[in-house]
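cron nightly-structures :: item 1 of 1
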Amino acid sequence: MPDYHNSLDGVFHALSDPTRRAVIQRLCAGPASVSELAKPHAMALQSFSQHLKVLEDSGLVRSKKIGRVRTCEMATEALTPAEDWISEQRRVWTDHFARLDAYLAEIQKKEQPE
């Protein structure tokens, strides 16, 4: 399994906050200015900028400044390590449950009178 530890920590930390998840959800519709992203959130722009910094540090969001406007966009490739890790965990647990089901079926079969 690839070593995604550092990128996973950053992505999961970034996604652990509802404000940051809301920003990600909005950016899935397309790029937006910082002021547009901040508008629905009841917080100072400086506080909101800290959320954007966490998202940028995790690699989930990219921003560029043109003139006085800073625009953010989603960087979907940063989700790949998290998707891979979640898929691997799903595979592992599916295998565990399949073996447990087989074991329980075997026990049940042995317990039935012939």
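cron nightly-structures :: done
The chain is about 65% helix and 10% strand.
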